[in-house]
């Protein structure tokens, strides 16, 4: 099970995205993805801005009703403490993906180079 980042989800749901084909391949290769609650919010916002409110509603229904995606949350204090423990400059949202990836001992589903770089540094 991999934690999904918004870069992966946006690429999956927007066919003209430069990483769409790769996102579909990752999606088809996995049985389940964890989607941090904050990443869900970020993804829905980007889809609404890029494709409109109607498409965002479709994406929400798909994420919410899918057996492949599990929207997860964590104690906010734990997430903040994890974020504060990182020595690299990274967004809170990226830290959430890294946090859940570490819990699952799996690589994040992401196209964000900075996120992946921090994740690799923590793993070594």
Descriptive report:
This protein is mostly helical and 124 residues long. The chain has one domain (2-123): 3-Layer(aba) Sandwich (Rossmann fold). Helix content is 65%, strand content 8%. It has seven helices and three strands. It has helices at 6-13, 20-29, 37-51, 53-65, 76-85, 92-104, 113-123, and strands spanning 2-3, 33-36, 69-72. The protein has a three-stranded parallel beta sheet with strand order 1-2-3. α1 runs parallel beside α3 (37-51) and α5 (76-85) crosses α6 (92-104). The radius of gyration is 14 Å and the shape is globular.
In short:
The protein has one domain: 3-Layer(aba) Sandwich (Rossmann fold).
Topology:
Blueprint: E1 2-3, H1 6-13, H2 20-29, E2 33-36, H3 37-51, H4 53-65, E3 69-72, H5 76-85, H6 92-104, H7 113-123
Parallel strand pairs: 1-2, 2-3
Hey, roughly how much beta strand do the residues contain? 5-15%
Radius of gyration: 14 Å
The CATH class designation is Alpha Beta
Fraction of residues in helices?
55-70%
Secondary-structure element string: EHHEHHEHHH
Question: Which keywords apply here?
Answer:
about 10% strand; three-stranded parallel sheet; about 120 residues; Rossmann fold; 7 helices; mainly alpha; globular
